Amino acid sequence: MKLSSIKQHLEAVPGAKVQETEYSKKGYLLDVAVSPEHLVEAVTIVDREGFFIETITGVDWLGEKEAAVKEAAAKAAAIAEAKAKAAAAKAAKAAEEAAAAGEEVPPPAPVEAAPEAAPEPAPAAPASVQIDDLEAVYDFNRYDEFCRVVIRVRTPRNNPVIPTISHIYQAAHWHERETHDFFGIKFAGHPYLVPLLLPEDADFHPLLKDFNS
User: Fold this and answer.
1) Facing residues of 53 across strands?
2) Based on CB atoms within 10 Å of each CB, which residue in 101, 167, 178, 189 is the most buried?
């Protein structure tokens, strides 16, 4: 079966994250994430195994890093609040038991109040960590046996460069131009990376989340 074969080969790509998926939920059978440095290697494998390319598109992950920082801060605040409540409950129980035994009840120890409002943002992470990504998504399939495979590559939003695969799949030539039009991803080595659908002098990329027409 081609799925097991292509999975085995792609797992050998350095740093590749390969995961089988449920087609009815995802629309593909294999999800593969690789670094830009190993994209050509992964695509060469897919080509050698007889897959054709369906399309290339992009995803703008603007805000992902900030959301992750906020989520981590909220989780830390929730843990701190739970600990404070547990400590208060423990102190109250100890006081009840001491009173029942006729012992002198010690004054309750001060309990640090948990934050009531939304937690303050966590300390700023290094600038390199806060830069969001753009992602190029490549869909491959077969004619003789249905086996849809997705390869994903992320690149920093402030310098979105990914190597071209147009020398492997000629059909990628137009797909890469279109993806560059909409998301601004530069495909290094592309022989003719000029606008495909946008005006020739276009200096904008309309599918970026921070694009304002």
Assistant:
1) 140
2) 178
CA distance 28 to 142: 12
φ, ψ of residue 12 in degrees (nearest 5) = -80, -10
Contact 36, 19 (CB under 8 A): no
pLDDT band at 106 (very low <50, low <70, confident <90, very high): low
Structural tokens at position 47: 């080509």
> pLDDT category, 110, cuts 50, 70, 90?
low
What phi and psi, each to the nearest 5 degrees, are found at residue 179?
-65, -35
Mark out the alpha helices in the chain (DSSP H runs): 2-11, 23-26, 39-48, 64-100, 127-130, 172-183
The helix-helix angle for 2-11 and 39-48 (nearest 10°) equals 150
